[in-house]
């Protein structure tokens, strides 16, 4: 294994920078739009409207990552200088990572926690 080279911006994939810039841009746009709505109902409407778009975007990023895993692995191995055994081990993590991404999507999806809290609140107000 060759020693790791110092970090160089040329090695950073442009798709990573573009995805980060897009995510920051969407977050800023949502915050700017949300400041005009002072009630929770207004924010709930924004979340409801954007739910499908964000779900499609997240799942497409997951599919891109899972589908491009062999290419990303080879690129990372060349950048860091991994051995053939390390490359095979890294490629073996593809489906394990895909499974965990889907588990996190189910656990942290946009409506799971809000629906749970709304059910708890409705149960609390209904019992008093």
Give a written overview of the molecule.
The relative contact order is 0.09. The protein has helices at residues 14-34, 40-67, 69-80, 84-92, 94-107, 112-127. Helix content is 78%, strand content 0%. Helix 3 (69-80) packs antiparallel against helix 4. It is mainly alpha-helical. The protein has one domain. It has six helices and no strands. The radius of gyration is 21 Å and the shape is elongated. The longest helix has 28 residues, at 40-67.
Main attributes?
0% strand; 128 residues; mainly alpha
Quick summary:
The chain is mainly α and 128 residues long. The protein has six helices and no strands.
Strand content: under 5%
Q: What average pLDDT do the residues reach?
A: 77
Report the span from N to C terminus.
Answer: 67 Å
The gyration radius over C-alpha positions equals: 21 Å
Tell me the count of domains: 1
Strand count, sense and barrel status of the largest sheet are: none
What's the shape?
A: elongated
Q: Would you identify the regions where 5 or more consecutive residues have pLDDT less than 50?
A: none
Q: Give helix and strand order, one letter per element, not per position.
A: HHHHHH
| Number of contiguous helices | 6
Secondary structure tally: strands: 0
Helix fraction?
over 70%
SS class: mainly alpha
